[in-house]
Structures are given as structure tokens and as C-alpha cells.
Amino acid sequence: MQITVAVNDVVFTREVEPRLLLIHLLRDELGLTGSHWGCDTSNCGACVVWMDELPVKSCTVLAAMADGRRVLTVEGLERNGRLDPVQEGFARCHGLQCGFCTPGMMLTARWLLDHNPDPAPAEIREALSGQVCRCTGYENIVRAVQWAAQHEAAARDGGPGGDGPGETGPGATAAGVTG
Fold first, then answer.
1. The model's pTM
2. Can you spell out the DSSP letters for 42-71?
3. Does pLDDT of 145 surpass 70?
């Protein structure tokens, strides 16, 4: 069957088997290997991507279900040569160890900050509860998300740590207005 899907704002049309999983379309057909295929049971969250602005576990979504939809992978978080604040927070706060769970963590954290720009640590832990990290105690991951939230707030307010007004997440424009 033929599907057309916009991945990281690039439209792709492919012939796929009806049983092909979205994670395999992304990794094997499109070469986007940032999302990881981990448990194959939807337990670990390493495969999280966004489909139409909602985090989904791509190991349980058929590629055919993405037909006509928008998908965002970790590769799409970076915009115009700049890392997303979540990506930068993970790097600065050592929010990763081996990095296997990191793409799913980052996409879930980005979704959280888009919906709750100032989450408490408990809210961050709850949002990330569908992701499994076997290397850390999650403390640095929570700190990374807090760092991103603080730096986004500073950017919006033009204060220290920010680059001035405007949004920084996926879909943001140079004027800071999302469409």
C-alpha cells in the first residue's frame, strides 16, 4: 500500500507492507535512526515520536496509520542549526548515559513543556513515567527538563539565559508565533 507522511516537515511517499511498524519506516526506509527500537512491547519508550503533535510509541503504530499525518522525530527538534532547549538541557545537565532512551525522553519532555512550561519535578517524573532508563536514577533527566523550562522562560521574558522573546519549540517561527 502507498502512504504519504510528513516527517520533520519533509513529505515522503512510500510503498509499505500493511504490517510495517512506524519505527521501521523511520529507521529502515527513511534513515532516521535517532528513534530507537527497544522492547518491541511499548514498555520502554525509546521509540517515542510525535504523530500530529502527540507522543506515540512508534513500535506499536503501523506505518499505514501515519498516512496523511505529521511525524516529528528527535532529528526534527533541532531548528535552523540550533538545538532545542530540551536537547541542550540534556547535554548540559548530563541527562543521558548510554543515550538509548534519550530520544524518547526528549520528545516526551518537549511535549510536556509545550503544555506545561513550568512543571514541578513530580510532574516531570509523571510525564516521563512511560520511558525506561536503565542507566540513571532519573535525577539528571529531571534537572535537564527543568533547565530547558527555565531557559525557555528566560527567552520568552528576555532575561538572563534567554535570547529574547519568542518560542523555541518545534513549529516556532522567527517571530515566535506558532502556526
1. 0.84
2. SSS-TTEEEETTEEEETTSSBGGGGTT-EE
3. yes
